[in-house]
């Protein structure tokens, strides 16, 4: 049992170390030797858990996808204010990209040309934004004739841009940057009565974005 | 003289081949052998022109930067309608990213973790967007209390996002996608009288975006 717990811990340390290495050096340049060293385990231990660098990248992406699913599930539990749920989700997601090496690497791997991939995580985010705006529309939160297609395009593109720009300059992932996007967009898409219920910062004013703990931080 | 012209042609072919290889495989995975083969020249010729893969990447970035400078200089020659100039510049830039391998690679190299770089091209774009909005403000085109800082953030982030998303799916670089962004933003930032002068598509309705020819296509 103790042995099993240690194996779980080692696996997590390797995923985290791989995430850091992929983000810093890119998939092609990150070496397995540097990853095992960073994780503080032997290269034998690495190969026991992961048969290749691709398998490690897949594990990083899987964990980032789990965290993403948790974020989008937890930000809007009651579903009464889907537009606020969308605003909150962008805040929490950007905060995770800034603070959580695995989520950050998960998105960076989606745009790493040195690795074959179908950008599944990024596509999941695109779909979620589209669905969230659809829920806001059905809940009567969007203005008559609101530019929904335009909003999907702008929100997906801007948040993908935040991720890329944030990998060089952290300020692009800040609450301030995300709030600026919504200050611009919310008055353009929300119905008057909904406007009063939307906070462009995270929905609890003055508080930090609510952050479900990432599993490897537990 | 003929020899000199051939040297210029070979150099251009190498830059173009390198751009295609970097975009397809990433900087770290692109091989010099594949680049010289793609350019239809010997590896000796490649080494005559470029001492390393880094030197090739630098040449790609330099040429992309030249094209970028030309685009931003030519889209708004009279400066009477700086907001339209900004709209047009985003259309022409995205069209170039879609169609011109060197410009596409120049931006992709800015976010390639396998290569040391200061993202100079992307930062030039950020500064240009900020300056263009400043010109629009001084020309009285922006609404009273318009969210200028917010607009800079949203426009830079969204266009960077278009570039990244477009590297997987071309539709993100289309006139339709860029127009959707502006349909959303222009009414939020432009003064009423300016609104009537702005086309969210390229400024000549029905026409293709005006595209200065890239130097290697001449």
TrEMBL record, chains A, B:
Region (Disordered): 199-218
Protein name: DNA-binding transcriptional regulator, AcrR family
NCBIfam families according to UniProt: ScbR_bind_reg
Annotated keywords: DNA-binding, Transcription, Transcription regulation
DNA-binding positions: 31-50
InterPro entries according to UniProt: ArpA-like, DNA-bd_HTH_TetR-type_CS, Homeodomain-like_sf, HTH-type_TetR-like_transc_reg, HTH_TetR, Tet_transcr_reg_TetR-rel_C_sf
Single GO term (MF): DNA-binding transcription factor activity
Domain HTH tetR-type residue range list: 8-68
Transmembrane annotation, as ranges: none
UniProt-listed PANTHER family: HTH-TYPE TRANSCRIPTIONAL REGULATOR BETI, HTH-TYPE TRANSCRIPTIONAL REGULATOR RUTR
Domain of life of the source: Bacteria
Pfam families attached to this UniProt entry: TetR_N
């Amino acid at each position: 049992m103790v042995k099993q717990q240690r194996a779980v811990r080692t696996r997590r340390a390797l995923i985290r170390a791989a995430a850091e290495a992929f983000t810093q050096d890119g998939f092609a340049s990150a070496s397995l030797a540097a990853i095992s060293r960073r994780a503080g385990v032997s290269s034998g231990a690495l190969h026991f858990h992961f048969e290749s660098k691709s398998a490690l990248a897949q594990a990083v992406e899987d964990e980032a996808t789990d965290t993403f699913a948790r974020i989008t599930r937890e930000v809007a539990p009651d579903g009464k204010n889907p537009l606020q749920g969308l605003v909150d989700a962008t805040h929490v997601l950007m905060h995770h990209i800034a603070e959580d090496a695995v989520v950050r690497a998960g998105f960076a791997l989606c745009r790493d040309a040195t690795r074959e991939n179908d950008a599944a995580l990024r596509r999941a985010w695109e779909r979620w934004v589209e669905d969230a705006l659809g829920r806001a529309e059905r809940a009567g939160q969007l203005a008559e004739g609101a530019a929904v297609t335009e909003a999907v395009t702008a929100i997906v593109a801007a948040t993908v841009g935040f991720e890329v720009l944030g990998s060089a300059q952290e300020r692009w992932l800040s609450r301030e940057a995300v709030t600026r996007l919504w200050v611009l967009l919310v008055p353009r898409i929300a119905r008057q009565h909904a406007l009063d219920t939307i906070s462009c910062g995270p929905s609890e004013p003055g508080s930090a974005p609510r952050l479900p703990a990432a599993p490897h931080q537990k």
